[in-house]
Hints:
Helices cover 60% and strands 13% of the residues. A three-stranded antiparallel beta sheet has the order 1-2-3. It folds into two domains: 3-74; 77-153, no CATH class. By secondary structure, the protein is an alpha+beta fold. The chain is rod-shaped.
Amino acid sequence: MGGPFRWVLRSEQRKLLQLHYAGEISSALFADEERRLAAQIEVLVEADSAQAIEEQQALDLATEFDQVVDYLETVDIETLWGSASETERRTLLNELLDQIEVHEDQLVVKVHGAPPLNMTFEETGLVRAGEFPSCRRAEETDIHWRLRPWAAAS
Length: 154
């Protein structure tokens, strides 16, 4: 990022020093310009350092993500889910899912750290259970959906 600019600033420092040695600028002007150039170079060095840290963090995160993916590819989710207690299932869902939005024709599933996933009710294992009982007059669009029991699918 700052490499080319830093090179230009260091070149200006060298020229400034040559002018000072040649007696063409005063010591006070030399000192002021040297401080200004040094401050600009320091800003570029810090920016390069921050960028390098961010790049390393992104690389570390990608490596950790790949490790998690590798692990999840070896896990038998159906067996894990089938043998989990209700509390363990709730914990699994809380750890994996951020939010589920229910719309008239689809679900929007938001997994922690991933883009939203749009799914139809059929894709999620939901089946139509009939009209939703209510003390108000039911609209034609009111539909009650329920999950198929996971254990019965095993």
